[in-house]
What we know:
The protein is an alpha+beta fold. Helices cover 18% and strands 31% of the residues.
Amino acid sequence: MKEVMAKKNKNNKTNVAQPVRTQPTKKVEVIVEKKASKNSKGHLGHVTALVKNTGGNSSVKAALLPNLYTTRYRAGWACEPTTVANPYTVSSVDVTSLVTGSIYEGGTYMAAISRDPLNAIIEYVPNPNGYSWKYSMMFCSDNSPSNTPIAIHEYFIIPAGPSSITTVPFAYGVDTNVGSPVHLHPHGGVFFAKTPNRDTSIKAIWFDEGNALQFGFFDITTGAILVTGSTVDIYRWDGADFVLENTVANPVANFTLISGLSSGWYSFKISTGVLCKANAVFEEGTNKSYALGHRPIPGILNRSTLTGIRVNGASVMVTPDSAELAKGGLCAGVQLGNAYVIESFFLGSSGGKATDAIISLKGSTQMDFHNGMYGWHKSMTNSSYKMHVPIRYNLDNVVQTPDGAAAQNSISNFISYMDPPDGWVMLAVTTPYNITGAGTAYPGGVLHTTWAWSVEYTTNDVWIGASLPVLGTEEYDEVMFALSRAPQFLSNSMHIRDLFNWLKSNVRTTGREGQKFLKTFGPDMQSALAGLLHGAGVVAGKIASQDSTN
Length: 550
């Protein structure tokens, strides 16, 4: 910037006007910090300044749009460099017909997301074709009675003695029919057991009513069928503890079948009276109508070098894929804490609409399903940003070979607690019935669901780069304070625009960053966002100019 001034010489005569250079403009960041301290908006104004100074709005964006942004969180003085990623998964859904025996009528659907990396998804999975499904269970166990290090095996050891009772140490289940088009895959390729905080030796798996679990018993060395009987104690989660529900005695068979259970989380204790090993197969049983699928963040089983993971953002989006004239209906969203067994809301509308379990809840949001619905997981407490340690290693772990078979063989346990950090975000959909009576019963029931997470993790893999966070702890808390006021549930067609507007108003993002949205969501969003992004860029430029000259 130049100014033109008339100067006078010693004889009081006016010289020709000369350009005078001003001092270089101070950095905008410094000016903004000073202005923020005087801002009448108080705390929020200070947050705005912090975000602009440090680029810390990445933490907000990672929470709002975890499929697009990553961030790093600082906790305390000590801080280990972390790696960031944006894992996601998409599920195609067809609820266009009524499935006899299912928990819902046709045309309705429900999905939920959490920050637990091992149990991050719950989804209603209809089974209109009556397909069977099967998972082979893996266990946290030694491979002999000689106290070898605990590792993951396809069997577990049961000691000798009539009073010897073994808690079944489930680790995870593996789909035995991966890729098969004539089988259902309700829990994806792998699902993980859960455990209560107070006792991680208890491992539970989810049963839908009618599912079956079959144990087989074998000799330790020869593998021959050995056991002629077993006793199984069955425990069910009541929301706070595992309570003994039943005891099944099978005195003659070499295999023990557990079936006829009501829906719920179950753990088991087994006694055989003799030293043996046991395996287990989990399958649909008599229930070929539906399943409540429980799945992890995709790919986490392959992260054999992962030593900790923090979920900085999580979102779920339901999008209609039906013909334009068939679109519509009702969608609803809500975030629920751990006072509930979340599956009760899936089961609570049995025989009716999934939305019935949500729309009457305090804090729920409802809207037309024509454009779908987007929801992100709000942090209610500091537990949302706790570093999880879902994978634990045994004494066989070799630091020099942190990956491959050596790493997999040194994994001793997977930890997924019954209560995920700050609960679950749930979306439910109900599409209208075809009143014409011709064609598909619920033509609007073709849709897809997108789950996304913004994560940072620690690893000893030397191939993967890692960095320290930018923000300090106080700044991060203040940014989260601003985030608590952001809209949580939005229409798909507008969620990027609305969240972008909120960011622009509250944490000063720039128009240039909005181009990332266009590249990610494709040409369908360009017409809706082009004007907004241009305007945001202009506004941001004016703000910066004003700040630099005041």
